[in-house]
Amino acid sequence: QVTSCFACYCDCTLPLLRFSSLLLLLPPLLLLRMSASVPSSSDLPLHGRHILVTGGAGYIGSHTVLHLISSGARVTIVDNLSNSNLEALARVEKLAGGIKLAFYQVDIRDAVAMEKVFQENKFDACIHFAGLKAVGESVAQPMKYYDHNAGGSLVLFQLLTKYDCKRIVFSSSATVYGVVQENPIKETAPLGTLNPYGQTKYVIEGILRDLAVAPVPEKESPWKIVILRYFNPIGAHPSGSIGEDPLGIPNNLLPFVMQVAVGRRPEVNVFGQDYPTSDGTGVRDYIHVEDLALGHVAAIEHGIFGGALCDKSCDSFNLGTGKGASVLEVIAAAEKASGKKIPYKVGPRRTGDIAACYADCSKANNLLHWRAAKSLDEAVADSWRWQSQNPHGYAAPENKL
Ligand code: NAD
Ligand code: UFG
User: Whose CA is nearest to atom 6 of ligand 2?
Assistant: First the structure.
């Protein structure tokens, strides 16, 4: 059911909207899209494209929505708010110059409510973020993960087919590489899974690849599918007004470190210091969420509507920085950003963790004309700005563990 729908903006308001949004957006956004002069709205790469964003109220989704708008797209968000807060969208609206976002509080597994969204809108493409992502929970409750992630995706793909919008960018993960054999990881590396969450990403990727090679009935358009495999997203909008707001105890390193820095938790537990890495702790490819958001704009612009897929219907791209950082390096960056000592304790390895994982991003660099621009220090500084301005995230302190 549609429980909330902010005013949709129609095409006639777009030039004014985009111009005012562009003027009001913060300098980092402007710099990314402007050269010497303010572009006219029709120069914007996604001018007039209507993009359905599932999971758009979430961490990566909210940052991406902002960049889609600044790139000229019209955005409609579907999210059940199971891991997000409407306040994130209110802040995106403010950052985008006071626009009203079109939003449906709908669960993607609810085929009836989802169909209503498609009946009320004509989409040019979809970015599919919606899903559950907690690895540990997926081990404890695998059915829940297959239901939300795989089941929800099936409902979505059926509607994209029925309403002839066969253009999708899918949020996959480096977790589909399973036990990494060689770093940096190329898209051609063998795939494998380590847990039910990873298995759902692997299965959904497989469904998309099968759709891409299935014969297309006459009069139907072919699929255009971009699979994005994210490495480790961190950081926040440079304003500090939107960022990552995990429910309960964070599973991921950076939000945990930030909550220690802000005084919500006493110390960081370092999961093992006996890995074959420079300091013995796990190494990951931490990518600024702003770079990641721009990766989605590039995927839509060059992958879905441009020539990056060449004659293919489906292709996969790594989105990372190409560089690894250890747990201790992340803690040191957080101490620098916050000016606070961050206590930590080394404990045993976490089950299922691998020693090191970082991306070869040359395919996205070359075909999507995209490259991560921000450093680990910038990302951690932006995370700190978000965390220190919003020590309890979007919700009131009493609602937070
Ligand atoms: P997030 O939890 O902040 O965002 C996901 C959003 O989807 C949330 O707003 C949640 O309320 C919504 N959602 C969940 N189930 C839904 C359902 N059944 N129907 C409608 N909405 C639903 O997570 P995120 O970090 O922004 O991740 C976005 C996507 O990227 C996810 O698919 C995730 O698996 C993938 N990913 C994330 C990471 C990461 O480390 N953050 C890494 C790799 C891949
Ligand atoms: N770590 C700690 N202490 C913590 C949390 C993490 O030492 O409290 C360590 C881990 O052992 C690992 C590194 O910090 O070495 C990063 O761990 P995260 O949990 O932040 O990230 P992962 O690489 O394990 O997994 C994340 C997402 C997955 C996704 C993967 C690749 O959680 O969903 O990145 O994109 F699949």
Answer: 253
The answer to whether the beta carbons of residues 11 and 105 sit under 8 Å apart is: no
Ligand 1 within 6 A of CB of 230? yes
What is the best residue among 171, 232, 296 to mutate for testing ligand 1's pocket, by most ligand atoms within 8 Å of CB? 171
Q: CA 249, 255, 257, 259: dihedral to nearest 10 degrees?
A: -60
Question: Considering all CA atoms of the chain, what is the largest pairwise distance in Å, rounded to the nearest integer?
Answer: 64
User: Token pair of 193, please?
Assistant: 């899974």
pTM score, whole prediction: 0.92
Residues marked active site are found at: 197
Atom of ligand 1 lying closest to residue 133 CA? 34
Q: Are 91 and 26 in contact (CB under 8 A)?
A: no
Whether ligand 1 lies within 6 angstroms of the CB of 204 is answered as: no
pLDDT tens column, 49-91: 999 999 999 999 999 999 999 999 999 999 999 999 999 999 9
State the number of CA atoms in the 13 A half-sphere of 217 facing the CB. 5
Q: Which atom of ligand 1 lies closest to the CA of 232?
A: 40
Integer angstrom CA distances of residue 172 from 154, 163, 203, 296:
15, 24, 10, 12
